[in-house]
Amino acid sequence: MEDALSNLLAQVRPHGALFETSTLTPPWSLRFEERSPLTLLTMLSGSAWITLDGAAPVPIGPRDVVLVVGATPYTVSDQPGTEPGIVIHGSDVCTSPDGRPLADDLNMCRLGPDWEASANLLKSTYQVRGNISDRVLSALPPVVVVPAGPCPAMDMIVAELGNDVPGQQVMLDRLLDLLLICTLRAWLDRPDSCAPAWYRAHGDVVVGTALKLIHDDPAHPWTVATLAAKAGASRAAFARRFAELVGQTPMAYLTEWRLCAAADLLRDTDATVESIARRVGYANAYALSVAFKRVYGVRPSEHRSELVT
To answer: What is each CA distance from 66 to 44, 103, 136, 165, 242, in whole angstroms?
Structure first.
C-alpha cells in the first residue's frame, strides 16, 4: 500500500483531453460545465484567465499549470469580461451559450507550425474515486495555480503534439499523469500551501519512516513500540514527535489509514469483508465492522451496497 499521493495517481487517468490549437484568437471564452472532480489545464502558449463560478478571476501565464478541484463550473477566457462563446459539457458535447449543439472540433491533438503565435489551451479531466485519494484532494483549494517550472513533462507534451505518429494518445495520457504529479508535488511543497500535516511529515526521517511502514503494510500488527524501533527512536520520543508533526497519535493514524484502505477495497474489489479485514490489519470481519461503523456510521457490507446503488 503506497502513500496517499501515489495512491491518487494510481487511481486517476486522463479523460477527455482537450487540445485547442487553432481558434483561440481574441476575444475568446470557453465555459466548462463538465463537473469533473479534478481538472488540469495549462496555456501551452499565450495567457488566459480562469474564473470559477462565484470567485474572482485568476490569471494564467504561459505554461502555468492549473488544477481545478471539485465540480463547480468555470470559464477560461482571454480577459475576465469576455462572454463565453462555447460551453463544454463533456469531451463529446459542446454547445453555444443558448444550448445549440456545436460540432466537436475542439479535440485537436496537433500543434501547427505557428502555434506559438496564438493561444493554445491544454486541458484534461480526471475521474477520481476512493477514500485515500480524497485525503489528497481535500487538502487542495478549489483552484491551484503552479507557475511555469522545470517539469520535463511540459516540453515532452509540446514535442508530442508536434508529431503525427501512432500511439500519440497513449503517450499524451502518460505525460499528463507526470504533469499532474509534478504539479501536485510543487504545490504541496510550497511553504504557503497549507499542505496536510501527514504530507509534510513524510520529510521527517523518523516520522516519515513510520508513515511509509504503515502505508506499505497496514496488515502488520504495528504498535507504537515496533514503529519506534523501526524508525530508530525511543517509544516516548517517537510518540511525541509523531503527534506533533501529524496531529494524531500513531495508532489513530494507523486506524484511519486501515479504514480508508478497507473502504477503497470494498469499492474496487469483490473480496469478502473477512478477506479485506485481514488485508488491512483486522483479525476478522467482526473487528473491521465494529471499527468501520464507528467511523463511517455503517457496516462494511452496507457501505458496499450504497456504492452499488
So the answer is: 12, 27, 16, 28, 33
